[in-house]
Design a protein that fits this description.
This protein is mainly beta. Among the domains are: 95 residues, Immunoglobulin-like (Sandwich); 70 residues, no CATH class. The protein contains 3 helices and 24 strands. A hairpin with a 5-residue loop joins strand 1 and strand 2.
């Protein structure tokens, strides 16, 4: 009898337990939709200073909602004013002479929308940025799951050495560029009739793609014995893509920031999930330095900052002791029964493998003959080595 009661209690407890676990679902109020979102910064290493103005969209339907026809100015703490022009929808730019862009100077942005809403940021002080000390990589294995499986690749690191510069708050952004190839030129194709391109078109054989790394990297040296830091991990590139096949470059932009800007970006870093997923930690309510002076109760999302900037680029070819687990995106396909007539008109022009004398019974995908089908450009970047 006692055993029966224990079993019943256990079953009741087992039924009740799942009902006690409530998944975290972020609640987005309707009033949070259509808030103004302002993003921009002044740096001492840019031809144009840029500010973007948009409206927040719903989580279920994320989209960019630009705010056009605004009157936008950047002001410094020395009484100078720089009027911005709208270069594209919701994006405003201005050239500022480098004589004005000196560490120690503070800047703010003032916005007047077409319907009379006044938005203004706090002043943000430009800190002095040291040169990027070192950018390097180490071949590394990273565990990918609980079963002990690993992914091979290269881990990038940077070293920071501020020397005599009295700056303590930093952010880095990484931009990667890689070369990728299509293995075949455009030579034979079929669109109801067979065509031969002579000489073959090799213009889409080699391409370069450039993408920003989405992760956020921040560091405060406040409280460290020395104003330096070694081996800060920046970016990991695995061996499962074409990135490391022909040539790879990583550009590191290093920003020295105010403490307020650092706090904002560091909270963004935490909120982005690098320190845990959404279900491990509820997202932070991130407040920037922008204010809606017309409707003070309405929060303005984003941050306007002034940052000194230094950059360094690293090039990589033929990583030693790293085997690439990747060959090509190109998958030649033997034509089905019926030969050329089996090709659906929706696939025209259908490229074919062949030589200068004749085509083969093999159809090539766009990936085989056009490297731009994977994105990027076939124009070699100015910074790319020969």
């Amino acid at each position: 009898m006692l055993q029966t009661k224990i079993v019943i209690k256990f079953l009741i407890l087992a039924i009740m337990l799942p009902s006690c676990i409530t998944p975290y679902e972020p609640h987005i109020n309707s009033k949070d939709i259509n808030k103004f979102v302002v993003s921009g910064q002044v740096t001492d290493n840019s031809d144009y200073q840029t500010v973007s103005i948009s409206k927040a969209s719903s989580v279920g339907n994320p989209q960019y909602i630009p705010v056009s026809n605004c009157y936008v100015r950047i002001l410094d703490d020395k009484g100078n004013e720089f009027l911005m022009q709208e270069s594209s929808a919701g994006v405003y730019q201005v050239q500022i002479d480098k004589n004005y862009l000196t560490p120690g100077t503070s800047f703010k942005v003032v916005i007047l929308t077409s319907d009379g809403i006044n938005i203004e940021s706090d002043f943000d002080r430009m800190s002095e940025c040291p040169v990027v000390d070192s950018v390097y990589y180490i071949r590394k294995e990273i565990r990918t799951d609980l079963q002990g499986q690993v992914t091979n690749g290269i881990q990038f690191y940077i070293d920071l050495d501020c020397g005599n510069i009295n700056s303590h708050f930093f952010r880095w952004e990484a931009i990667e560029t890689w070369e990728h190839h299509a293995p075949y030129p455009k030579e034979w194709y079929y669109d109801g009739t067979v065509h031969h391109i002579s000489p073959p078109d090799f213009s889409r054989i080699v391409c370069w793609s450039t993408e920003p790394v989405r992760n956020i990297y921040t560091l405060s040296t406040l409280g460290l014995v020395e104003n330096k830091y070694n081996m800060l991990p920046i970016h990991f590139v695995d061996n499962h893509t074409s990135r490391l096949m022909y040539g790879y470059s990583l550009l590191i932009n290093q920003f020295a920031m105010s403490e307020a800007a650092y706090s904002y970006w560091d909270q963004l870093r935490i909120n982005s999930g690098e320190q845990g997923g959404l279900y491990e930690k509820q997202p932070l309510s991130i407040r920037g330095n922008l204010h809606n002076n017309t409707n003070p109760d309405q929060v303005v999302l984003g941050f306007f900052s002034a940052s000194s900037l230094k950059s360094k680029r690293i090039f990589i070819r033929n990583v030693q002791n790293l085997t690439l687990d990747f060959t090509t995106y190109c998958t030649p396909d033997t034509l089905r029964v019926g030969g050329l007539h089996s090709i659906d008109p929706s696939e025209y022009p259908a490229f074919l493998a062949g030589n200068k004398f004749n085509f083969f019974n093999v159809q090539l995908s766009q990936y085989c003959v056009d490297c731009m089908s994977l994105g990027g450009t076939n124009i070699k970047p100015d910074f790319w080595p020969n």
